Amino acid sequence: MPIRVKVFYFAQFSDAAGTSEESYTLPDGSVSVADLLSRVSSAHEGIEKLRRMMKIAVNKEIAEPSSRLRDGDHVALFPPISGG
Amino acid sequence: MKKTSGLITSSKIDLDSLLKQTDDPELGAVVIFIGKVRSSSEVGRVDEMTYDAYVDMAEDRMREVEENVKRSLPNVKIAVQHRIGKLGVGEVSVIVVASSPKRAAAFDACRMGIEEIKHRVPIWKKEHLADGSQRWVESDLQGAKKSRRRKSQKANL
Questions:
Q1: Cβ–Cβ of B122/A78 closer than 8 Å?
Q2: Which member of A6, A48, B83, B85 has the greatest number of CB atoms within 10 A?
């Protein structure tokens, strides 16, 4: 079954994507964060340039490219934290 | 604007509310850390700062910061709040209030609270410079890495 996930972008990633959130449908067998990132990078060239500083969260927990995704997951892409 | 709770706010931070949360007749030492927007940065004069946050995750992390401090330092009360949105120079972006029976633990708790916020809570800031340019501020860790790299490159010259 294809899965649908929501992607949230913050800081430089939001600038590069030109949006703060969007949805992706991933086909059967493409269910890792890495699969999603290839789709995102194809859609937004600027995101690929930020890969070295990219942090990933799935459902508010820090994740890795190898992390598995499930239908309805919320994925966030952002740079290292700089608040305060 | 995203919905916010007490820990992350798009309004002015309410110091009185944080003081009330940490008020206890047994806790006679109160330490307050206030973080404000500075008028200068390493690249020039700053007019304004925009704070962006992953609000849902940031609120969870702010709660964890409070819990971590209380677990590490018994008999301490702590209350934290971070503001998001566009702030002018001198406006308050973050406040940590810690109270304890004695001052040493109150200072330790306040320090631990702000350090954890700066390293664990997903908030990012963008400087609006006086020359009209804007830039996202790198994390302390990124800045330190770059500085080490520059020093190492100089040493190799």
A1: yes
A2: B83
